[in-house]
Amino acid sequence: MKKKLATLLSLLMLGSIAQAAPYYTGVGCNETGDRCIFGKPSKRVLQWSRKGTTQELGERCEKFIESIDARKKDIASKRALDLQYKKFTYSWSSEVDNNGRAKIVCNIELHSELADVKIVGQKVKSLFWVCADKDSAGICKNYASDCEKIRQEALKGENVLDATIYRGASLLQGEICDIYAATVK
Fold this sequence. Notes:
Layout: H1 2-16, E1 24-27, E2 38-41, E3 45-52, H2 54-57, H3 62-76, E4 83-96, E5 102-112, E6 119-127, E7 130-131, E8 142-143, H4 144-155, E9 160-170, E10 174-184
Parallel strand pairs: 7-8
Antiparallel strand pairs: 1-2, 3-5, 4-5, 6-10, 9-10
């Protein structure tokens, strides 16, 4: 009798643990949203990263998490939102800031535990031929400060959790900065 009661109690406890949002939904997908036969992205999980200085993001990305958490609370005051953080990592980039320290890269998975609330990473704008400043050599159509201004404007948007700048380059378009925003839909 005691074994049956203990087994029942453990099953109830395991059943009450919240499952993470699935990556994919569809035919053959399990609870975690993987191993699908025919699955489509659920848009309930967003892998988000941001690179910056330790003054901006914190020594171990604590300011990065606090910023997302503050925006999450603001959005949750207006609408239903259950957001979980999973698989948090940080690393050091090869890029050095003005103080001589390596920039930090923060990575996190944002999981919406509500089926009707999606988290979408969408491109706000791309700028081509981007230079660091006006004294930079080469073809300069835009500057790094322009990318930062657009990122700050994107943060003012409704239901925006965070905004980041991804950098790239192309032979025909020079250095590129893409501004992305993580938005709750």
